[in-house]
Amino acid sequence: MVENKQPVIELQEAVVTFERNKSEITAVDHVSLTIDRGEIYGIIGYSGAGKSTLIRLINHLQVPSAGKVIVNQQDLADLDKQQFQQARKKIGMIFQHFNLMNSRTILNNVEFPLLGEKLSKTERREKALALLKLVELEELADAFPDQLSGGQKQRVAIARALANNPDILVSDEATSALDPKTTLSILKLLQRLNQQLGLTIVLITHEIQVIQTICHRVGVMEAGKIIEQGKVSEVFRHPKERLTEEFIDTSINVQDALSRIQQKRLDNLFLLKFIGETTNQAVVTEMAQKYALSANILFANVDQFDDLTVGVMILALNGPEVTAGVNYLRQQGVRVEEIAKRVTQS
Ligand SMILES: Nc1ncnc2c1ncn2[C@@H]1O[C@H](COP(=O)(O)OP(=O)(O)O)[C@@H](O)[C@H]1O
Ligand SMILES: [Mg+2]
Q1: CB-ligand 1 contact for 121 (6 Å cutoff)
Q2: Which among 39, 210, 251, 344 has most CB atoms closer than 10 A?
Q3: Strand order in 308-318's β-sheet?
């Protein structure tokens, strides 16, 4: 983690508006954000939230309609054309669909960003081979993109993004087209590059697992705004926004379990959340005994967010003192939601 905080990316009240059919869309709505050197910062949100536009602001593909974008202490608006080109090279980018050139070999793909640099052919080749080694693909240097798996293609794209020794790597849904196992291997690679090279990584995703696996901090984005942000475990310990809760629920498969269980049309269904360093689910047994309730556990799961454990349980309670039992659970620090209410509300 970052010891001496040094801001490398600062957005100050950044706004991006687009015009469409004579009406104005605000894709990024007064976002202020500071990302420190060496940090892995994740932005999570559903499709259309404005994530890609935000990340395009960071790597200078998008000019803000208002507000400031400061990268490496340089205000984007103050740069002349040459400085701007230079600044862009210091930010690598990877995408969901890799964007490799199919008619060129893997080596040539990685060499491509170096073509404009003052390097001899041999130096360029050596640099590209070293990058392929870094992503553990040197043996595929002479292959073509079509011969590679999705995970291997993304490794090539990462090597290419690092060709100009960037300080920052931005990732726009880089693992969204990959299966879970391959996703994990790419995330582990990004984590290693963060540690080995001190690379600052900003990644956007709609998958909470990505945030959980490698991010230090997270911002939750909705309708152009960062509605909540902080250390991953802190945000998940005290989610302030419904949307944040939804992402947490996705990770522990609560939504699937809920829709399955709701079909059974049971009464007195409750969703319990245990949040802490350890989760003490024995409290449910205590409650059942104390209030002579039958507590039928229909679903239970535990997941880890950084140093935070989140446990969930779906319970069907029966007996005369259900309300007292629920109050007892709440007194013990368990978050309890009645499921029927939850459904009619949403
Ligand atoms: N070039 C553009 N022109 C017009 N509207 C755009 C453009 N780019 C994005 N938008 C709109 O801005 C909003 C945010 O888009 P985007 O940043 O791609 O969101 P996300 O990456 O979270 O799915 C959407 O409503 C999208 O349609
Ligand atoms: Mg997008």
Answers
A1: no
A2: 210
A3: 294-305, 308-318, 269-276, 335-338
Boundaries of domain holding 286: 252-345
CA 155 to ligand 2 center in whole angstroms: 20
Q: Of the bound ligands, which one is closest to the alpha carbon of residue 51?
A: 1
Asked if residue 196 lies in contact with residue 29, where contact means CB atoms within 8 angstroms, the answer is: no
Residues 141 and 286 in one domain: no
Q: Which of 165, 160, 164 is nearest to 109 (CA)?
A: 160
pLDDT digits (tens, 9 = 90+) for 21-49: 889 999 999 999 999 999 999 999 999 99
- Asked if 144 and 290 sit in the same domain, the reply is no
216, 240, 264 - which closes a domain: 240
Q: H helices within the chain, ranges in order?
A: 51-58, 81-89, 106-111, 121-134, 150-161, 180-197, 208-214, 232-237, 242-251, 254-262, 282-290, 322-331, 339-345
Q: What is the pLDDT of residue 63?
A: 92
Reported as a single tens digit per residue, the pLDDT across 122-156 is 999 999 999 999 999 999 999 999 999 999 999 99
| Per-residue tokens: 239 | 């989610």
Tokens of 33: 């954000």
**Last residue of a domain, which of 214, 240, 266?**
240
Q: Are residues 22 and 61 in the same domain?
A: yes
Encoded amino acid at 266, one letter: L
Same domain membership, residue 270 and residue 174: no
Q: Strand, helix or coil at 256?
A: helix
Question: What's the number of domains the chain is made of?
Answer: 2
Ligand 2 centroid to residue 51 C-alpha, Å: 6
235 and 265 in one domain?
no
Please tell me the distance between residue 204's alpha carbon and the centre of ligand 2 in angstroms.
8
